[in-house]
Structures are given as structure tokens and as C-alpha cells.
Amino acid sequence: MHIPCLFRRQEPINLQDKVAFITGGASGLGRATTERFIEAGAKVVIFDLNEEIARNTSVAHR
To answer: What is the model's pTM?
Structure first.
């Protein structure tokens, strides 16, 4: 069963030359937000209580 997402933007987001600070950015919704912002061209700074997971997320997106 497929349920369409009603909240997804259809037009691309341009975040070139923007910097995002994302708390909890290493996992879950924070990581998904991190990935989306990077795809849109932003430079992202991740804050997370779990330093190891934050480093792994950072390395995965370099």
C-alpha cells in the first residue's frame, strides 16, 4: 500500500551559500534533515549528543 506524502515540496529547494546548524543531526529526523539540506546545497553543521554517530554521519556526507 502506498500513501503519498502530502508535505513534500515539489519544486527544488536552493540552499546554496546557506549554513544550517542541525541539533540531533546524526540520526532519525535530524539525519534526514541533514541529508536533505546537503542535497539542496547547504553547508551543514551537526550537533548531537552521540559524538561517534555524528562523526559517522559527517564522514558519510563529505
So the answer is: 0.73
